[in-house]
Write a structure and sequence with these properties.
The protein is α/β, with parallel strands linked by helices. The protein has eleven helices and seven strands.
């Protein structure tokens, strides 16, 4: 599923079905899986576009909307059975690749690391690789850290590898016309793997990126934003908790810049931001929130 979402106006344009008709189908038949934004607006995905087009094909052949929906429901029941089997196979394959990556990182084996990563990309989309393989690898490394099972060198090894891969993707898609995001880690945050994985998803969604790495002083952000005319700033905070001083500084920065300032990596905070958008640690939800704040269309 494409991580990008869009309002009903775009859904209508891409399918040729008026918004009023789409809303009527939603009310009467419960079709489509609209997602609610933070503001309560209903957003849709490419899956919804595909569903409406399949309904249109059946209607064009003479079926009523209710019959077309029943036909698709019956077909989906069969597909779900097949998908369940495929999901089981995929889950085993994902777990195997995570173990292969962890072993390569532990042995500082660049060849094996790259071989596993390239194999994953040949089988799955970038979003799937990020969410199902790279992110679980990051979580596993994080769990090993407190017990001393993972060294600083291992994390730097993996971070450097990912940074190079993301840099290559940026280089090969330099003509992207999407909004530019500045992505960095907050002062004192030296773990940039999370921000790199988020950057992969953001890049795949269509954004242009400027990666500034770990431990970025907040006073460096404004000049960079002005020079590159960035549409937003995404900061990562993983291994620390924001205190009142940091909240005040970041809120002041957000109020100075006329663009969204987002903070990802943390879920539960005891302090309240006034002008900063919290993305949490779920990449899929974070990308959806990003698209709401900085639309690609």
């Amino acid at each position: 599923m494409n991580l990008s979402t869009f309002p009903i106006r775009i859904l209508a344009e891409r399918t040729g079905v008026p918004p009023s008709t789409i809303r009527a189908w939603e009310r009467r038949y419960g079709i489509l899986q609209a997602q609610r934004t933070a503001c309560g607006h209903r957003h849709y995905t490419d899956d919804d576009v595909a569903l409406i087009k399949r309904l249109q094909q059946r209607i064009a052949r003479g079926a009523t909307i209710s019959k077309a929906i029943r036909e698709l429901d019956a077909l989906q029941h069969v597909i779900n059975g097949v998908n369940h089997q495929e999901q089981s196979v995929n889950s085993q394959q994902w777990q195997h690749m995570v173990m292969e990556l962890l072993e390569a990182i532990n042995n500082f084996d660049t060849y094996k690391l790259d071989e596993t990563y390239q194999e994953a990309l040949s089988l799955y989309s970038v979003d799937v690789v990020t969410e199902k393989i790279l992110r679980p690898t990051l979580v596993a490394l994080g769990k090993r850290w407190p017990n001393g099972e993972t060294s600083v060198a291992e994390e730097h090894f993996f971070s450097t590898y990912l940074r190079n891969k993301i840099g290559a993707r940026i280089h090969h898609s330099a003509q992207s016309t999407g909004p530019t995001l500045v992505i960095a880690c907050v002062p004192g945050e030296h773990h940039e793997l999370g921000s790199l994985l988020f950057a992969l998803s953001a890049k795949n969604a269509g954004y242009r990126l400027l990666l500034l790495g770990a431990d970025l002083p907040l006073d460096q952000i404004t000049p960079v934003v002005n020079k590159v005319q960035a549409a937003g700033v995404v900061l990562s905070m993983v291994n620390s908790t924001p205190d009142n001083k940091f909240v005040k500084q970041l809120d002041e920065l957000a109020q100075t810049l006329d663009i969204p300032i987002m903070l990802g990596g943390i879920n539960d905070v005891d302090v309240a931001f006034e002008s900063v958008h919290l993305l949490g640690s779920d990449f899929s939800k974070a990308i959806n929130e990003l698209v709401d704040l900085i639309p690609l269309y």
